[in-house]
Design a protein that fits this description.
Largest sheet: 8 strands, parallel
Keywords: Glycosidase, Hydrolase, Signal
Radius of gyration: 22 Å
EC number: 3.2.1.52
CATH topology of the largest domain: TIM Barrel
Enzyme class: hydrolase
Strand order of the largest sheet: 11-9-7-6-3-2-1-12
GO molecular function: beta-N-acetylhexosaminidase activity
Helix content: 40-55%
CATH class of the largest domain: Alpha Beta
Number of domains: 2
Strand content: 5-15%
Mean pLDDT: 81
Catalytic activity: Hydrolysis of terminal non-reducing N-acetyl-D-hexosamine residues in N-acetyl-beta-D-hexosaminides
Number of strands: 12
Length: about 450
């Protein structure tokens, strides 16, 4: 009780600080800067507590959630896997199958020695490094740990591990420190008035970021955010905090900024990742906890939310992250991250080139609390044509996902044509040696007509 009261007092104090106009705030611009600085300080001080609370909410599945997942009168669907294998069982299973299924999975982890057995057995495609992997460490020491894993892969004759990071800049800068803290792309371009200045600033920004990522050994960055900033700073979307991460509300400007950014990263052989298709701009709920939905028509989405994705998806060196939200006009039941209708009708069939697709973290509540559950969603996702499954914590999620994939593969329930297609796409992004995959990437950014406000 006392702890709850103290938390409430702290929360009210933070709110009062945000609402209090500083004495030297002569105009709205300085006030916004004041609020932004206070917000940044607040989140920095309370980040660990907030993340722990969100993790607890993700993994807690209340009875009402279980009941609501299946319509009344219908039997509960069987949960995958029917039998959960131990880590020893998984790593001791058929090596060819383990490598074939494992090349679809990227895992986060607590310690490098924890993930080493997965690399030695070929049970993963890549690793995801984040704040707890680099906290209090020098960049060169982190790089040595990553290179030691790459050396294992090289000795095995397998493609390099994908080394993914979540270094957007601004609110989401998981590797700062040791990498330099940078503002978000939205903050960077907000004060610039013409495309010449914007392009120069974005390319310089991306080069600094790419140099830091390259020094660590990162080969894929989960950025840029190309969701549109359609809400206000007061939107209540939990940990998503999209207003502070989005570039702009103008889809043409977002496409250009993202194009300049990705051009620069690909010159360093770092895959950039557009996120989060089908867009979170219209989604008020926090998919870290529960699923959300987009009720706009597909015509509205094509003219606004999807325009930045359409401009850039399928270009060399650019991947796309699929979010856990339902597009009700396409699939009312299944989140986009494992919806065959969304992935094939609205991405594969309408995009030139091969689009490398990776899910948002399957450990989010939108998946773990769904009727399909974590294992079922993973199987549906690979069968729908997603190339890579992201698991933020190997200790929590890897055994469930791999047990489900092994079970489905044993029962001939894995779409083999999709497997072949995914392998071909991945071969264009990940290579056995360190030679560049292709010539210098083309300029992705394009000049666009004047902005038309998106449909609401």
């Amino acid at each position: 009780m006392l702890r709850s009261f103290a938390a409430a007092v702290i929360g009210l104090g933070f709110l009062a600080t945000l609402l209090a106009l500083p004495p030297d705030a002569a105009d709205a611009r300085s006030y916004r800067s004041h609020v932004s600085a206070k917000k940044k300080t607040y989140w920095a001080r309370n980040k660990a507590r907030h993340r722990a609370a969100i993790r607890a909410r993700r993994n807690a599945v209340p009875a009402v959630a279980k009941q609501a997942a299946t319509p009344p009168g219908q039997p509960l669907p069987p949960k995958r896997p029917l039998k959960l294998l131990t880590r020893a069982d998984i790593l001791g299973s058929d090596p060819a199958r383990l490598e074939r299924l494992g090349r679809r999975i990227i895992v986060g982890f607590q310690r490098f020695d924890e993930v080493r057995p997965l690399v030695e057995k070929g049970g993963i495609a890549g690793i995801f490094i984040t704040d707890h992997n680099v906290r209090g460490r020098k960049a060169d020491d982190v790089a040595k740990d990553i290179q030691s894993l790459q050396d294992i892969r090289k000795a095995q004759g397998l493609p390099r591990l994908i080394v993914a990071a979540d270094q957007e800049g601004g609110y989401v800068s998981r590797l700062s420190p040791p990498l330099k803290q940078q503002p978000s792309l939205g903050t960077l371009v907000a004060r610039l008035k013409n495309d010449e200045d914007r392009e120069k600033a974005v390319r310089a920004y991306a080069e600094v970021q790419a140099q830091g990522l390259e020094r660590l050994g990162v080969t894929m960055n989960f950025g840029p955010v190309v969701d549109l900033r359609l809400g206000t700073s007061r939107r209540n979307d939990g940990e998503t905090q999209l207003f502070w991460r989005a570039i702009d509300s103008n889809p043409y400007l977002v496409a250009k900024v993202a194009g300049w950014y990705c051009d620069t990263l690909t010159k360093f052989d770092i895959i950039c990742t557009l996120k989060h298709f089908p867009g979170l701009g219209r989604v008020a709920r926090d998919t870290h906890v529960v699923t959300g939905e987009i009720s706009a028509t597909t015509a509205q989405l094509e003219l606004s939310d999807w325009l930045p994705f359409r401009r850039l998806m399928g270009k060399p060196g650019i991947a796309t992250m699929i979010g856990h939200v339902r597009v009700t006009a396409a699939d009312k039941e299944t989140p986009a991250s494992y919806s065959g209708e969304v992935i094939n009708s609205f991405i594969r069939a309408r995009t030139e080139g091969d689009v490398l697709l990776i899910t948002d973290d399957l450990g989010m509540g939108a998946v773990t609390r769904s009727k399909d559950g974590l294992g079922g969603a993973a199987v549906k996702s690979v069968n729908a044509g997603v190339d890579l499954l992201l698991l933020s914590d190997a200790a929590l999620y890897y055994d469930t996902v791999m047990s489900a994939l092994i079970e489905a593969d044993s029962n001939n329930e894995i779409d083999q044509a999709r497997q072949i297609q995914a392998r071909e796409r991945l071969s264009k992004y990940v290579f056995v040696d360190d030679s560049p995959p292709h010539a210098a990437p083309p300029q992705h950014a394009q000049q666009e007509p004047p902005h038309t406000p998106p449909a609401n």
